[in-house]
Amino acid sequence: MVEAVANSPSSSGKQPGFITIGYRGSFAFGRDGLADVKFRKITRILVCGRVNLCRDVFGETLNESRDPDHGLSDRYTARFFLKHSSIEQAFDMLQEQGFRMAGSCGSGTAGGTAADLKPGVDAEESRWNHYNEFVFVRD
């Protein structure tokens, strides 16, 4: 199926395919339960998909430094990330290139103890960690 989708032209003339966007974040609620000005903290937006599609959609905002197979574009990768941390900007870029959201999922943490944390990790912030993924498709 992946081969059929990758090789068939779409009605828009652009190559069809899938791109998955993921991020690990932390809601910015403090010890007092008060909402901070920054509702969520996103450290990095991950990008998975066919290399040439990711490059077409995200252009110069795509960071390829963690991908060991530089140069080859007819392959898949899960090692790209964006140079910015604005999830809305990433969604806008996908929509402008004809992608639509096909699905999403998310998970959260249930706290844990300070003994479970690595040194230097804020125990309060780790209680509010979550991970989300969004799958986009262009037919």
Structural write-up:
The protein is of the alpha+beta class and 139 residues long. The protein has one domain (18-138). The protein contains 4 helices and 6 strands; from the N terminus they run αββαββαβαβ. It has helices spanning 2-7, 51-58, 87-96, 123-126, and strands at 17-29, 35-50, 62-63, 76-82, 100-108, 129-138. It has a 6-stranded antiparallel beta sheet. The relative contact order is 0.24. The mean pLDDT is 81. It comes from Graphocephala atropunctata.
Output the keywords.
single chain, 139 residues, alpha+beta, 6-stranded antiparallel β-sheet
The percent range for strand residues is 35-45%
Mean pLDDT: 81
Rg, Cα atoms, Å: 18 Å
Class by alpha and beta content: alpha+beta
The tally of domains stands at 1
Poorly predicted spans: none
SSE order: HEEHEEHEHE
CA-based shape: globular
Q: What is the straight-line distance between the termini?
A: 13 Å
Question: Biggest sheet: strands, sense, closure?
Answer: 6 strands, antiparallel
Strand order of the largest sheet: 3-4-2-1-6-5
**What count of helical segments does DSSP give?**
4
Report the strand count: 6
Helix content estimate: 10-25%
Keywords: Cell membrane, Cell projection, Membrane, Phosphoprotein
Protein name: KCTD8/12/16 H1 domain-containing protein
Subcellular location: Cell membrane; Cell projection, Neuron projection
InterPro entries: H1_KCTD8_12_16
